[in-house]
């Protein structure tokens, strides 16, 4: 990597350096937890702070380390911390030594009330619904949880086809934190040119509720400067398992901006600010375009933060602004 080509601007200052797939969770007590993919892809680590800005310098604690062999021994990716039914869970993807692309979604459960200090137990791979012979049969990752009207929904990316496979996004209702209740429903497949650069990819789903609608952002194309974010939306009273009830935006809502020094933005999460009202988008991006070697193993995807506004239709506006923190 040629450091002379790094473009530092007031728009691309990281919240946390070298943390891809950033996920920020606001707990019931108003404090914040942060997780992301570490560059070594070998462990799960959590930060905790009273404010979003405080996550920048918060101590990071490793709560789980990969196995030496077999399942969960390689490519520990995109962890998310969730609080479901009064318990803490971490959802993440992992492959295995000897079969590096055998990515599957796994879950850990905290044995106590303190996710930073209490032990975590492995609950294994997320189980498909009874009779579902399609889910998690191939490269599956980037799972997130949507809670809505007393139900929990599992949304994830999974590849299909042969050869150079296609990554789609699926949704299913959950029976428990470890198992699905329904068969998968296809939400989106890479239809447009901006979703098909180098690889045909839809991945990294994240949910935002506002003004009677549910918005789902996702990431598209390969992990270089072409990486970008698309969006779907649905009425909050619609059937979330009806794929025709979702509307997909024709163009990306967030993409590379060379003048601002933001390259390959994507795999975001949403979180409320300390006021409990303001919405923030936490995403990763690089500060340069040219990458030496495989972009997947380039460590300089940094967690950045954007304050959201809304247009007259109530849709989120993703607009790069000077550094917030």
Largest sheet: 5 strands, antiparallel
> What do the pLDDT scores average to?
96
The ordered H/E elements are EEEEEEEEEEEEEEEEEEEEEE
Enumerate how many helices there are, as a single number.
Answer: 0
Which stretches of 5+ consecutive residues score pLDDT under 50? none
Amount of beta strand: over 45%
* Class derived from helix and strand content: mainly beta
Q: Tally of extended strands?
A: 22
Percent of residues in helical segments?
Answer: under 10%
The CA-CA distance between the termini, in Å, is 27 Å
Q: In one word, what is the shape?
A: globular
Radius of gyration, CA atoms, in whole angstroms: 18 Å
Structural notes for this entry:
The chain is an all-beta fold and 325 residues long. 0% of the residues lie in helices and 49% in strands. The strands form 6 sheets. Strands 9, 10, 11, 12 and 13 form a 5-stranded antiparallel β-sheet that branches. It starts with 19 loop residues before the first strand and ends in an 8-residue tail after the last strand. The model has no long low-confidence stretch (mean pLDDT 96).
